[in-house]
Amino acid sequence: MTVPNSELPDAIVEAMRRGSIIEAIKLLRNAKGIGLKEAKDFIEAQRRATTVADKPADTPGSLPPPVANALQRGNKIEAIRLFRAHTGLGLKASKDAVDAAHQPAARRASGLSPGEVPQSENSMWWPVAVILAVVAVYFFLVGSG
Fold first, then answer.
1. Same domain as 85, residue 68
2. CB distance 75 to 37 below 8 Å
3. pTM of the model
4. For 11-27, what is each residue's pLDDT tens digit?
5. Which of 5, 79, 80, 97 is the most buried (most CB within 10 A)?
């Protein structure tokens, strides 16, 4: 996948910043004269490179204060709207970022890692042990009498 003159025109960069991937692919195809697959692969690679570099940390402190406040109030939709206004990202990218920042707090609250099954408590063994003890005492007393 080689893109001639890999410096991207401003319109393509702006479309990527807005989250309009299809528009960015179309603009790249028109500007560089390359095929659909090459353009898609190039844009996706650029997106991955920028999202890794610009990805917010997974802590609520990494969010802008109004977004973190909206999340603390339990208003996730408002948090996404505020995040979009603050960063200029698209709806999906903003939702993913807010989810990523909100999810670790939920994991810490439960104390479980993703996919970890909570261990059952041994509350079932206590009544079973008492019943077995009563049955053993009954057979001991009936057998000796």
1. yes
2. no
3. 0.36
4. 888 888 888 888 988 99
5. 79
